[in-house]
Amino acid sequence: MPKLPTFDDVKGNVQDNVIWKSIFRPGSIYRKGYRDTSRDRALASMNNVLYHLHPVKVKRHGLKLTYTYCLGGLSFFLFVLLTITGIFLMFFYTPAAGAGSEIAYANMREISASITFGNLVRNLHRWGAHAMVFTVFLHMARVFYHGAYKPPREFNWVVGVILLLLTLLLSFTGYLLPWDQLALWAVTVGTNMMGFTPVFGDQVQFVLLGGVEIGPNTLLRWYVLHVLFIPFITVIFLAVHFWRIRKDGGISGPL
Amino acid sequence: MSDEVQLDQEVYDRLIAEGKSERIARAKAKAASVRKAKIAEGQTLGPKPADEAAKQLSAYRESAGSGGGVATKTAAQAEAGGAAGGRLTPEQRAARVAASLGNGGKQPASIGVPTSGDHTHRLLALVPPAGIQQVQGKQQDKVYTWPHLLLVEFVALLAVGSLLLIVSFFLDAPLGSLANPNDVPAINKAPWYFMGLQELLAYFHPMVAGITMPGVAVVLLMAAPYVDKNPSAKPENRKVANMAFTFFVVFWAVLVIIGSFLRGAGYEWVWPWVDGLGFTL
Fold this sequence. Notes:
The complex is a heterodimer of chains A (255) and B (281).
Chain A: H1 7-15, H2 18-23, H3 38-46, E1 57-59, H4 65-68, H5 71-90, H6 103-113, H7 118-145, H8 154-176, H9 181-194, H10 201-209, H11 216-247
Helix pairs in contact in A: 5-7, 6-7, 7-8, 8-9, 8-11
Chain B: H1 9-17, H2 22-41, H3 50-64, H4 70-78, H5 90-101, E1 142-144, H6 145-170, H7 195-201, H8 206-227, H9 239-261, H10 272-275
Helix pairs in contact in B: 1-2, 7-8, 7-9
């Protein structure tokens, strides 16, 4: 009987070929010959897409969980999670409303009741959105109490405040999409306030609602804002935010 | 020392007879003959005792004069009529610099320009000290991102991801009845993060509560790093800033809590344990 190959044999054969080596650059922990040496640890960052986010080395004090509580990273994680669950929900949702064609609300019922994993993914999206508002706020508070907005990080704080506002807008535009009583009237409270903007109040409200009151046009407009426009702007500001962290010398402190 | 060191023939022959290689035998024979010569001169062999070495050093210093090191002394001796204490006067030093440049104190000769016409560019340039960037990086206590930081981040991600999954498994997101613009619900509230604004709406004109106050809050927040000129990041040095921010946060938190839990039908004040929780996430 021929000897069965061991796990290490299979692993070696999988890793030792042209395709695998073309995907994982030297120093990758998935590449054959990774050793836990200083050189390979440095290469693991340097030759990885993560090098866009993290430098090769970080200040030791920043590793302490009670310094950052990982709040910025978790906000980004939640943003990614909301993107993934959001794309899933988009497969089953049409932003159409109006007498005789209440498709959006019907879709919501289907997602909750009959679509595989639909209810779970919707719950993840809803609770994840609330969690993200909360983590972004806590991240801001953490940064303030550490004085981490001080030079040279002033502008990154401003970008962060913009990201907080974008997070609120993302959450608020998503609030309307179920097209139930809760959504309609919660959004009514918010958009009524926008109507009191000085000078341009009526125009601002008209543009945001796609009419004089909340209706099918509002739903379509907020859907596009929610799934395309605001995420697009958010990603741009996220890129600047992460880039500035590294350019401003990595994590702040130690205190 | 002379290059010609005689071999000690007796030692050489013995080592060859023992089967040592010719090279080793010759080296050992040379060493033996040097040892013999030293003994003949009356020197002691082996490392010198420490007190003897110290005595020799102090004797040497006595002979070299009181001030300056060895190198200064020899330099001063080379100078005719060396300065007292073995140091050069500024004039002497300037004269030596000029002499070494070879043109009697004038500007340094052009350097690095070959006289033949083959070369069209200078090979060397003088860089003034001010032009050299002084990089004085402080050594920081750093660790490798992989594995230290990435493992922490991965665990945090898994923890929050699983917490969210568990919550989503047991707790369903609310879904009311179909939107109806003609049916105003008794309890009409914004999302929780805007409840602070809605609560302000109960006290102020909508333009103040909905536009002016949040606008001022956002501008203040963005201006914080430019207003706060205190360079220290230590909590004990920035009590005013921390208190202002804490006041800001507590102010909004109280408004959100009142709006979310203590307001009921018609936005009247209620107690949640009396009238029920008029709040939906």
